[in-house]
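Recall that a protein's primary structure is simply its ordered list of amino acids. Everything else, from secondary elements to tertiary packing, is in principle encoded there. The following example makes that idea concrete.
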Amino acid sequence: MALVDQLKQSTQLRWNRVHKFKAKICLNIQVGGYIIKTAESPQELIESFRLRHEVFNQEFRGIAGQGLDYDKFDYHFDHLIIVHRETKKIIGTYRVNCSKFSKESYTALEFELQDLFKHEGPFLELGRACIHKDYRKGSIISLLWRGIAEYMNLSGANILFGCSSLKINNAREAALIFKHLRDQSLVSEKYACRPTKAFTMPDLKSWNSYFAKGLNLEQKNEAEELLPSLLRSYLKLGAVVACEPAFDEDFDCIDLLTVLRKEDLSQSLADRFQVARVNK
């Protein structure tokens, strides 16, 4: 990186207060050859930004070159990271924000959340989840969820929510996914949320009408193939999709607003991740 670019990046990081970052909640769990923990220093935070750039910008958007992915929200959030113990490299990350510590919300840029926040908190917002391409397997996803479960316990959060990104940029596939999830009773109307005007997807309404009559087997199989593994794991935990997809033009993808109440956790998974589950 050229010196002028390094100076510009350093200035931007300071502007976003990365040099002052401290974890709100500290956790550290060793599992086999990995550690799931919260980032505790600016250096660890910057390494997570580098991984996010590799996944979101290089892979998702085809942008060449090294860089960092960060925004104004990162200072206010905690950051779960998975560290490969042998190489010391961060191979997974997920940022989390408990409403007890900050009212900032990235998700609120894309979705109208007023009715969601009428439910009993505290709320835990999840976002910017990514895993290095060489480590995308079930065991690593489980590690992320173990960290989230522990953070949920430590923060006392009752509701988890956030954007689940899908590498889809057309209304047909967005409507197809939404219909498929609705048919499996994985879409809930109870939160009365919807995409903000700036993130409403053009032509989605017409494609929703087209698929309203039902999906054939080929379309169901197509929808299944479009579902990413991280979203699948979220839904298996008991999460639901709260409304139709939003379209993130900057990242050229759709986002699904996913919501998980602690009381809706499937009991087997609550036991597996040792979550203090609320009885209904």
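The two ends are 55 Å apart (CA to CA). DSSP finds nine helices and eleven strands in the chain.
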